[in-house]
Amino acid sequence: MSTVLTNFETWKHFLADRVAQGKQAGLSEDTISNLAFEIGSFLDEKVDPKNGEERLLKELWDAGNDEERRTLARLMVKLVSNS
């Protein structure tokens, strides 16, 4: 996954593909958002940001409470779904 994370556009395309696969598999928007939250939690704990966009997302994630982090995860799903 480290190759995917070195470029933010690559990360967005990767996430968009996973979201599309989830929708095709019949996952609900809530389930996809919950998975995005879990991925965000994992990345926050285990992965050092590789670029400015990821650094900003980490700082927003760290500043937020649980509800705000869930909102950020939903927004990321919405961002890649609309692109």
From TrEMBL:
Record InterPro entries? DUF3243, Uncharacterised_YmfJ, YmfJ/YflH_sf
Gene3D superfamilies, alphabetized: Protein of unknown function DUF3243 (1.10.760.20)
Task: Classify the source by domain of life.
Answer: Bacteria
One of its Pfam families is DUF3243
Q: What is this protein called?
A: DUF3243 domain-containing protein
